Amino acid sequence: MAQFIKLYNDNPNPKEIEKIVKVLQNGGLIIYPTDTVYGLGCDITNTKALEKVARIKKVKPEKANFSFVCNDLSHLSDYVKQINTTTYKILKRALPGPYTFVLPGSNSLPKAYKKRKTVGIRVPDNNIARAIVAALGNPIVSTSIHDEDEVLEYTTDPELIFEKWQNIVDVVVDGGYGDNHASTVIDLTTDEPEVIREGKGNLDIL
Prior knowledge:
The chain has helices at residues 14-25, 47-56, 76-79, 85-94, 127-136, 158-165; strands at residues 3-6, 30-32, 39-43, 67-69, 99-104, 118-122, 140-144, 171-174, 184-187, 194-197. By secondary structure, it is α/β, with parallel strands linked by helices.
């Protein structure tokens, strides 16, 4: 059964963050809060954990559109090809915030992503998510646990999330009620930004 760990967004407990990081380092899966819906995540450097997430989402790992949740933009060059000034300014304006940006992937992507030409980058405006990533030392892969066929409450109430996921993941982080709106997804791989999905983030940043 999963651990159920309560954290407060204004001041996440470092000892509890360390527990979560150990689980990730051992190939475990976590459900954690973001500034939008709750996410299912694992360490991006752990191929077996990535495969587990892909199985849960019923997709092949190489075809999965999972995003990388980062603490800030300082490690961007580890996963993304060089970007122009205009693109970087958009990222700086929008992040941290409820956006996923599709960017050109670099040659140093983790093994499971080697064949991918693009990567989705998230820097959520949520202290819990960013504290986990900062303590881990590299991004976590993330995919929303929102399912159109299910009762909306599953994405907002941590206790209901725990009921559903306790035998599937290793940790469910209770960061309070989530949001019903997913992130806004914007493709920045071409000259003109393309909005793939309009979500919580407004488009004034473009």
